[in-house]
Amino acid sequence: TDAEVSARKKTFAEVQTERLDQAERTVLIKCPSRLNEKKLLQYLASHGSVKSHFFFENRGINALIEFSEKSSIASLQDAVGIPSASEHHVVPFKSRLFTFTLKNPVSQHVEETPLHLSPQSHIPVKDLIEKLCLADSMSSQMYILLNEYQLTEENIRLRFLACSLVRDFARAYFPDSTVKPFGSSVNMFGKLGSDVDMFLDFRDTGKHATKMKKGPFEMEYQMKRLPSERLATQRILSVIGDCLDNFGPGCANVQKILNARCPLVKFSHQPTGFQCDLSVSNSIAMRSSELLYIYGCLDSRVRALVFTIRCWARVHGLTNSAPGTWITNFSLTMMVMFFLQRRSPPIIPTLDQLKELAGEKDKHIIGGYDCSFVSDLRKIKPTKNTETLDVLLGEFFEYFGNFDFRKNSINLRKGKEVNKPESSPLYIWNPFEQDLNISKNVNQPQLEKFIAMARESAWILQKEDKTQQMINKEPWGLAALLIPFGKNNSSKMKNRMKGIGSETIRSLLDSLKLNNASSQQKAVGK
Description:
Residues 11-79 form the RL domain. The chain is of the alpha+beta class. 43% of the residues lie in helices and 13% in strands.
């Protein structure tokens, strides 16, 4: 739709600012199970105009209410009572989380219109597979998967609200601080049900720095000085973590992980239902979020392919939510981006090309690393590539099934296979911190499993007789790839896995060069 297209053109910063502002005008209300929507809205309207609202299920029915004016919240807060402390004593922290109850519960015969509840989680894979089998092409299967898994408008609002509620705590100590989501909540690649990564940002304090430059004298705050930025981060997070733990309504299982490479506080935010990770401002992570946001906006195939590959990897146990030696979703996403840069013509530009398009405002040097790239999407020329998603999916499996991981690394700055700077099995350059490998955690067995699965998938897609499978009511196309392979053709799979070891990988690559000559031609022509 046109509205969607114009929304697409907003810069990352504009979208963030808008959403953070919207979250500040928002409250969350726990509702009784038999709710008269009209009555609730009438009551709220007495405090100011309600701009939008939706209901969702999470330990009962909840309403997210966005007011037009921030002042309506203060008006509502003035009218709200404190829970009577009969068996529990309460911590008198007044937040934007309320409980709405009806003094005289609605009698049975009152006409109730059933509430529309916005789903906050995606359907299980087996239900997805059934839906996919009804599609008419693999491309439509991939768009169906994208639609089922991607964050909804409502879910994004809830994520920003969770950040805004944490910010209310931070502001008790640091009045100009903000709490912003980063990573999958904002980069267009978030899946329903994923955690919310958020960070505490004091950067806005930079605005004051320029004020005193003119004139013959200078004034600055007296502030506590500590030997390292890391120690300051740890202390701030420790106190805010305690605060959430002791006073935060609905903040449970607060864990302070202060000795990690990036210190953080993990907690579960029960009112919104999110698992949250709070850290202190990380500008480079924000640049990565924006880079992916740009790639995701440039072409609709980008997101459809990433969501598909990530779902495929999860089904086959290539990724895991627990940290370990397997490939992360971030690494997989970067592999898809690299593959799209390598197409002919390329579907997305390299990071160096985006840097060349950067204007003055886009210049960012962070900790000595150049993180500049264009933020205005209109300056980026659309691709001339017209390959369908069906083709791209098969080619992705083929490309990485035959990639020389021993010798080459993946570099999104140049969009080229570059010699590995060191011997990690999988080497993907961090796009900004050029001396880091984002997939350093991946070991050889996990990489080999990925290669085997990619080959198996390429093979299934090539061999497939779609019409026959549809007649036989068998899963076809993408649906066939989302069923664990061991189940239907374990012996074939064993043969393919036989002897996969780093020494034999080369010979295996040769023996598995694709069956028919035409596809061999394709492989050579690349």
